[in-house]
Description:
Layout lengths: L2 E5 L6 E5 L2 E9 L19 E3 L23 E4 L3 E5 L21 E3 L2 E3 L85 E3 L6 E3 L63 E7 L4 E3 L3 E8 L2 E9 L4 E5 L1
Antiparallel strand pairs: 1-2, 3-4, 3-5, 3-11, 6-7, 6-15, 7-8, 9-10, 11-14, 12-15, 13-14
Amino acid sequence: MTGFGHNILGFGSVVSVPAVSFDVNFLVIAGGAAGGHGSGGGGGGAGGYRTSHTSAGGVSTPKASGGGGSVESALSLNTGEAYTITVGAGGASATGGGGGQGADGNDSVFATVTSVHGDGGGGGGAESDANMTSVGGSGGGKGLVVNGGTYNGGSGTSGQGYDGGKSYGSSPYSGGGGGGAGAVGENGSAGQGNPDGGQGVHSDITGSSVQRAGGGGNGANIYNTTPGDAGAGGGGDGGAASEDGSADMNGDVNTGGGGGGAQASNLNPGDGGSGFIVIKIPSARSATFSGGVTSSTSTSGDFKIIQVTATSSGSETVTFS
Length: 321
């Protein structure tokens, strides 16, 4: 163990105080991705979702980490040591549309736990007739390809999120919904309209059950004018006709939700939602942050619950005492 010294009674002697190890439970969600540009842009994938907290209640399955992952082990950390903490920003939509894949989100990090950024939704209309090969916490939905084929969305990361939905290139024509932490993005098919984003996962680590990390809905197109819906848990709705990056298309802040896809190449898709970190420590312990960290602390029984919603530079640290 490492230690730190301090002066005793002003006589200049330095005594080494041994570090104390203790268990820390966590919820770490990365930033969600923006939806895809172009006609029938794919929904943005949700940010990766990792937790060591076993939740009660909520309707989503699993009630653990994303992508069907199990609850992880708590971290064993030491007092007096500085640990990295980064809340990943959501992927920002490019101004003025322009076509192509949406911007990825950003990773969230707490100590040795890294949740992977959401994968940007595929661009519609002019999107290539090929499967998406990109990978995120949850995968982006494939953008519309009107050639009769069916193509895969982006891939999710095991233990963090699910794949994005497939496009459907025959009538009624659609791209795919963005993957969520709790379910794959919906696939385009002959029997449905534009696909919805995959749902997120519930956690009650903060004291009440909240669903987060839903995927973005697929954008409308000239053949199929009803957009896909947001994935439950902070995803953004797909863009309707002429809808230009409006608020309902954005993934919700502090959820890692994916943004909705755009309806046309000159319109903006939804932005991804920012990530979120929760740290649960014994009430006898305290946390001190470096740099620009936005956080709040509450007490529940024998524990302190620290919610971290923003870090300014991505290089902040937290030290426990």
